[in-house]
Amino acid sequence: MTENHSIASGSDGVSRLIDTAETSGITRLSRTDSESEGEHLRRVAEELSGSGENRLRVLESLLSDRNFSTRLEAAFELGKIGSFKSIVILRNLLLSQDESSWQIAIHGLRKGGSREGWLCLESVAMDDAKRLDPSNFKVSELSFRRLMAMGRTKMMDRLFRAADGHSRSISGDVARHFLVKAVSTLPYQHKEVMEHRLGIITGVSATPYATADALGIDLEQVRALELEAWNFIHSPIQTIIE
């Protein structure tokens, strides 16, 4: 029996897998914006003939290849396909405890460019954010590292905004714990600037002028270091070809 699934964001903001008529078999059969009519027809013919299933099996097997660049390319192709089944393969890789697997999965989900891939990242980020309570160090540490590895997501932005304790859905203590840990990953000068700008030291966010004065550096340097710091935090785990 054909399975109809997709990945969507509910009214509560939670990304989840749902059934939908938009998806049939292994991919959406409707034409995408980037496809010509001919490309669309060829893709549909492939999927309905079962060759798409074979391609998924081959790509999934390549995720275990000894050559790292081959694994990255397979992940990219799976992300580009953007079907329910291809995204589930990458999601399972992302949910493993192996950080090199995260690197491969994140590469595929981000670089593949499909909407389903981005929704998958947001869904996993949402789940990880619920496990950031430091009372369970092992679980919270793994979730923190994976959130940082994924780079900027809507969930990451929400965590930073919730650190002031005014969020109704995210604990201020948990959000602040995430903020402090994220800043601690920065190079020393960037860390100093962000500790002042985000109020980690005094509990009150300092202006760029006050930060420059406190650190004895000029205003332009503060602004440059802050911009670089956000780039560090927002960047996904680096993909290094072996």
Would you mind describing this structure in some detail?
The chain is mainly α and 242 residues long. It folds into 2 domains: 6-125, Leucine-rich Repeat Variant (Alpha Horseshoe); 129-234, Orthogonal Bundle (Arc Repressor Mutant, subunit A). Helices cover 61% and strands 5% of the residues. It has helices spanning 37-49, 51-62, 68-81, 84-94, 99-111, 115-129, 137-150, 154-162, 172-184, 188-197, 208-215, 219-234, and strands at 6-9, 15-18, 23-24, 27-28. The strands form 2 sheets. Strands 1-2 form a two-stranded antiparallel sheet. Strand 3 (23-24) and strand 4 (27-28) form a beta hairpin. Helix 6 packs parallel to helix 8 and helix 8 (154-162) packs across helix 9 (172-184). It is elongated. The two termini are 41 Å apart.
Protein topology:
Layout: E1 6-9, E2 15-18, E3 23-24, E4 27-28, H1 37-49, H2 51-62, H3 68-81, H4 84-94, H5 99-111, H6 115-129, H7 137-150, H8 154-162, H9 172-184, H10 188-197, H11 208-215, H12 219-234
Antiparallel strand pairs: 1-2, 3-4
Helix pairs in contact: 2-3, 3-4, 3-5, 4-5, 4-6, 5-6, 6-7, 6-8, 8-9, 10-11, 10-12, 11-12
